Amino acid sequence: MPQHASTQPLDVFEAGADHEQVVFAQDPASGLRAIVAIHSTALGPALGGTRFFPYASTGAALADVLDLSRGMSYKAALAGLDLGGGKAVIVGDPATLRSEALFRAYGRFVQSLGGRYWTACDVGTYSPDMDDIARDCDYVTGRTTAHGGAGDSSVLTAYGVFQGMRAAAQVAWGAPTLEGRTVGVAGVGKVGHHLVSRLVADGARVVVTDVSDAAVARVLAEHPGVSAVASTDELVTGDLDVYAPCAMGGALTDEVVAGLRARIVCGAANNQLAHPGVEKLLEEHGVLYAPDYCVNAGGLVQVADERDPSGFNLERAEQRATGIFDTTLGVFEVAAADGVTPAEAADRLAERRMRDVGRLRGLWVA
Predict the structure, then answer these.
(1) What φ, ψ does residue 333 adopt, rounded to 5°?
(2) Which residues form a coiled coil (predicted)?
(3) Fewer CB in a 10 Å sphere around the end CB: N or C, the chain?
(4) How confident is the model at residue 185 (pLDDT cuts 50, 70, 90)?
(5) How far apart are alpha carbons 342 and 290 in whole angstroms?
(6) Average pLDDT, stretch 89-108?
(7) Where along the chain do its domains lie?
(8) Phi, psi of 344 (to 5 degrees)
(9) Is 23 exposed, middle or buried (0-12, 13-18, 19+ CB in 10 A)?
(10) pTM
């Protein structure tokens, strides 16, 4: 999947040349500054979370939202959903800017797009925020269960990553389990926290790290057998069987791959490859990479289920997320058959569906 990793100022039309629409919005009264990027609606309306983050510049925010929205198109296509790819970012520190007024202003902005983009939670936003957005917007998923929503989408995101990790274990070691394996989880916030619980229940030895001491302390309190290290650098160079990047993107750099001792990389973070070509370095180093947008699609499956006319059904959503195991195995099988990396195989499968099914739909207009 193409990515833009440059830190240079971006030309909107050049950087987003493969996107259908990029829209900027601001509301000075509430402090809202937001960007929505719609990559593709070939398979249906674009669905993707809203990230609330203190970007260093508008260019950095734009680069991130373009990469993230592109990833959502591939994620939805590979998961077999009738959805396109979109993403939004709110620029600023959620610790100081979060307010009902800001989210309602943002909701009016999303409403103005007429259903071409549906929002949900992401880094820095939570289900109660979606409830505020929904007071002025019809195109919201990931709402609280009290309002008929799916609640925290990190639950099935972690479940899907666990299924993808089981599939990778099947290929690497011949059995779909992490029992007795050492798994390093970088980032134990919303998703990583749930993933640790899954791994512990499966009998894995788990080592964690996070920039938040509180997040690490919570995991250690809940799981006394889990250990922690001070940094991601210490984690990735440790004696791991599996490395699970579950924080921000760009985690897999040339330097990380060179020092990595794990046999498998499988985590929840989006856009893990720091630049094109890292996927080949992983293969050269004997590391089996489970493509991020393949294994972390469980959250998208969860919030997408809210759009069902019958309302959200967790059992149905979980059953669909269980399919990530077979999808991941399918990616590995195509990679082996075609002589390409798993990342390239996932792209081929996603692009084929967007091309074959998308031609039947064209541009989505609600």
Answers:
(1) -65, -45
(2) none
(3) C
(4) very high
(5) 7
(6) 98
(7) 12-147, 154-297+326-345
(8) -70, -40
(9) middle
(10) 0.88
Mean pLDDT on 68-86: 95
> Which residues are identified as catalytic?
87
For residues 345 and 327, give the distance between their C-alpha atoms in angstroms, rounded to a whole number: 11
Tell me if domain 12-147 and domain 154-297+326-345 are identical in fold: yes
Q: Using CA atoms, how far apart are residues 321 and 299, in angstroms rounded to an integer?
A: 8
Tell me the two tokens of residue 278. Answer: 């890292």
For the annotated binding site for NAD(+), the residues are 187-192
Would the pLDDT of 5 be above 60?
A: no
Q: Is 117 helix (H, G, I), strand (E, B) or coil?
A: strand
Q: pLDDT tens digits, residue range 267-286?
A: 999 889 999 999 999 999 99
- What does the buried/exposed string (b/e) look like for 106-141 if buried means 16 or more CB atoms within 10 Å of the residue's CB? bbebbbebeebbbbbbbbbbbbebbbbbbebbebbb
Residue 333: partners with Cβ closer than 8 Å, 6 or more residues away: none
Strands 288-289 and 227-228: unpaired
User: Residue 251 and residue 1: Cα distance in Å, rounded?
Assistant: 16
Element (H, E) at 128: helix 127-134
The number of residues in the chain equals 366
From residue 237, how far is each of 73, 79, 139, 262, 285 by CA, in Å? 33, 32, 43, 8, 14
Of residues 82 and 16, the one with the higher pLDDT is 82
Backbone angles phi, psi at 171, to 5 degrees: -70, -45
- Of 6, 10, 37, the residue nearest 21 (C-alpha): 37
Rounded CA separation 363/366 (Å): 10
Evaluate whether 60 touches 281 at the Cβ level (below 8 Å). Answer: no
Helix 324-338 and helix 314-322: axis angle, to 10°?
20
> Does residue 315 have a pLDDT over 60?
yes
For residue 6, the model assigns a pLDDT of: 44
Range 154-297+326-345: architecture per CATH: 3-Layer(aba) Sandwich (3.40)
| Chain segment 215-256, per-residue pLDDT in tens | 999 999 999 999 999 999 999 999 999 999 999 888 999 999
Structure letter (DSSP) for residue 186? E
| Rounded Cα–Cα distance for residues 6 and 122 (Å) | 23
For residue 11, the model assigns a pLDDT of 78
Q: Which CATH class is domain 12-147?
A: alpha beta
Model confidence at 43, pLDDT cuts 50, 70, 90, reads very high
